[in-house]
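User: Fold this, then the next.

Assistant: Folding the first:
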Amino acid sequence: MKRITIQNMDGTMEEVDLVNSFDVKDINKNFVILSKGEKIKEGMSKVYISEVVEETPGVYKLIGITDESIWDKVKQAMKEIVQGA
């Protein structure tokens, strides 16, 4: 799994595992699924889904998804990835 560096909201930098990245073309935004290695329970890891913007080469800033219509488009894109569409 690829490791990337992200900038947290407080400005600190953190290395995380990039699980997947995808774009939603009709809103022209890029999203990532990240893992910090946190376990929920045996065999399950906590993941984070966020819009991502490359601030400088190789450094990414996450932007929370607060708009319900954007979240619906992100969920649809993830379903298509899982289904292999």
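Now the next one, as you asked:
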Amino acid sequence: MLTLQQIKADPQHIIERLAVKGFDGQKPIARVLALDEMRRDLQLRSDNASAELNKMAASIGKAMKEGRREEAEAAKEKVAVLKEEQKALADELARTEESMRNELLNIPNVPYSGVPEGKTAEDNVVEKTGGKMPELGPDALPHWDLAKKYNLIDFDLGVKITGAGFPVYLGKGAKLQRALIQFFLDEASAAGYLEVQPPYVVNEASGYGTGQLPDKEGQMYFVSADKLYLIPTAEVPVTNLYRDVIIPADSLPVKNCAYSACFRREAGSYGKDVRGLNRLHQFDKVEIVRIEKPENSYAALEEMKDHVQGLLDKLGLPWHILRLCGGDMSFTSAITFDFEVWSAAQGRWLEVSSVSNFETYQANRLKCRYRGEDKKTRLCHTLNGSALALPRIMAALLENNQTPRGIVVPEVLRKYTGFDIID
């Protein structure tokens, strides 16, 4: 969440930048500032009451020592009243602080100055394009037909077991899926990311820490008996490793990678754009997460983009990078770049990665800080990216690499699959 210091330093600037995300910050910012005034007044009154109580306690002790018992008893009655008043002040202060925190939790991150204005995905800016576009014949099949033809994925069986959006991978389809996971993890390890294996469920504090709560509560699966959430991405548990942690400056940057299953309700999704692997409720993904000093985070963001681009180049997939406009960005992000690959049989671009810098927004929620050489603690910057999400990568690989002989496996995956063609 935004810090109070950010808002107080230049509230009008914050309001103007939030408008780039399509968020009207006028009233929420005004409420935060009003609650801060109330909080400071209550704190001052509470401090004064404490000082008065201390003064009276000393006078009672002196009166008792000097035998002025009636005076001491009268003072004790005043102390009892003051204590009740102080308790009421403390309760009101706690309610005011909670109200202010709730206001701050519902204000999105301020977009970085380089974020273009715009309302929808149509306003995103293509930054870079690479890879060779495949040339397929008129009889090319979409991945859901290829999956059925070669017995790679059974969508109907997934419906039987669970429901739509939970496919079952079979035979060479399962092996190709596992090969992609291992390839992505090996590439991340080679780039200096420490692999971790996180839990697939998190508590409420973790959801608030990375900003999925309260913004995306309806998109997460909730285990009501235990008050736990199934993770929508490994970003949530991995970044929360550093909740309430002060990191020594010489330990930065922190670079982690993790494979996990991801669970998303995707409420309201329907139509041709969700067919096959295009949109699932459960899917696999390798995530990269970085914790950085603020002055280094944008160089780190470029490194992460280069890493994702390198994966797509090695897989031989045509890609482009989008700089998201304010209206298409997430609640928590300061800037986001989406990677999309070309799906030849569907004739459309498919999103396979988002790489984002959250600046101090998540770190403030997490209380993730580092201690500088001056011994002072400061908020870190957090970043993450998909490297990569598997379903649409799998879809593009099947479609783009289909030949009359079968589906050709990219060379970089063959040491993991043990086969070079699916026939």
